[in-house]
Every structure is written in C-alpha cells, then in structure tokens.
Predict the structure.
Amino acid sequence: MATATPALAERPGSVPAAQPSPGLQQSIAADQPLATGRVTLATGHVDIGPRYVDDKWSLLIHDGTRAQPVWRDPDETVLRVSDAAVQTVPDDPAYAFLGVDAGKRVYVVPQVQNQDVVWLGWNTQDPRVMQTIDRGVTLHLLGVRGPGTLTTFLQSGNFAAPQVLWRSAGPAGQPAAQPFWVEVNTHTHANWVFTVPGVYLVTIQVSADLVSGEKVSATRTLRFAVGDATSTDEAFAATADVPGPGGPAPASDERTEGGDPSGGPGTLLLTALIGVAVLLAVALVVVLTRGAAAKRRAERERTASSPDGRS
C-alpha cells in the first residue's frame, strides 16, 4: 500500500500531488459473500459500489479491510473517522471551497491511503454489474445530516486544482455539487473532509442504464462516526431522514423501468387523471338522465292539453 500522504497541503501555497497506489489495482470475485451483523470500520480499504443482491440492484459497502473481502449492508456498518484523520486547513486559496478558515482543524479521509485512517472510495467492479450496465453509473449525493459540512474532492497530480465532487450545505442541507459519472470497471478514492466531529448520515444514490434498456437506481445511507469521542451506538441509532430532490430520500433500493418509479410522480398523475375521468362520466350520466325525464314530462303535458288527447 502507499504511504500516508496528506490530503490538504501542510505548507502554505503548496498542493500535494496524489501518488499512484497499488491499492487501486483490484478485481472483485463474483462469489464474494454478503456479511451480516454490525461492524465498525476504522482503518483499511473500503469502497461503496453497486451490486446485485437476490437479483436486485443495490448499493453496498465493499469491505477490503480483511484478508477475505466481503460486501456489507450500509445500515449495519459505521465508518469511524478517528482523531488520526485531523489535518489543518492550509493558507491556500485553492482550498477556499471547503468554507473553512485557514489554520482550522478538520477531519480528512484522504485520497491516498493513511494506514491509521479508514480509506474510502468507490468501485464499479462487481462482475455482474460490469456485464449488465451500459458504460457506467451515476453517483448522486442526495443529502447530509450532521453537525458540520462534508466536502468530497479529487486532487490530481501536477499541481492541478482540486476537483470538487460533492459539498453539503451544512446540517440537513442540500448538496452543492452535481452528480458525477463513473465508468464501468472503475476504482477511485477521493478526499472526504468533515468540518467538525459528530455523527454524519450521508445519503447516496447510484443509478444506471442497463444494456437491456432497463433503468435501475438504489439509494442508501452511509453512517460516519467522526472523532474518537463520537459514539458508534449513536451512529447506528441515527435516523436517515435526509432530504433529497423532491422530498426525503428513500432508505431502500428501487428498481424502475421506463424512467418512472412505482408510486412516483407519473403514477400519481395517472391516478388523478383516472379520477377526473370518472367524475366526468358520472356528471354526463346525470345530465342525460335529467334530460330524458324533462322530455317525458313535456310529452305528458302536451298530451293532456290536446283536445283529443293526442299530441
């Protein structure tokens, strides 16, 4: 594995270049199991990524911290960001996007592995995912619940400017960055910066077009316990009521076809149109019935007024 490299420059005016890491050269076996039971991951290699579970598209945590990698349910996993992750924000305008004053201390899950800190990235390397998706997936930050701000960014080499991927707007805030595209068979790590310690719930959606023409989407919430003093039990107990586009983010996986999830806006519109059609039909029947009755009354009156009793 690569040696620990700071994500934020330690010297004013300098930007650290991310170095290639052997940890990015991985492949994932199709038979890697889905582990059960609660676990806290504080160090080692961890990815998030799409995978099929019981033929259903899902977003899981790939745990490579052990000799035999496994997949894990995000609801049963807490990512511990210990005090070993603390770094100082440099006096460099290139990092102004963090929204934190120079000299302040923040918690950083680095892009290049620090052996004392959990190493979080993402992959699209599950064999069935690679066989079924059309070119790649889209990762979307739906929202963040926590005491501070989360920023996720990439730092390439050659003194290039940081590339901001996601930035929350604070507690229960809307994300400030757009979704980004991840090609098939990709394995990437980034910098995750938390401004203050505490429990953070980070809701992420992964969606894709399949080669079959079907659209799939899954939304899950990552649980972070930032800082040594933050309770893991609190992180497990926290409720993922993070608002996303159009309302609260769903906690379960979704499968859609034709672009309209079951129970979504399209379904509601169809239901409303059917209701309007039923009301119009009832009104038409009432009008026709009243018209026929009025016609019969008029005929009876004409017959009664005729001298010979005929109309």
User: Anything to note?
Assistant: The chain is about 15% helix and 35% strand. Helices lie at 127-132, 232-237, 265-305. The first strand starts at residue 39 and ends at 41. Residues 22-256 form one domain.
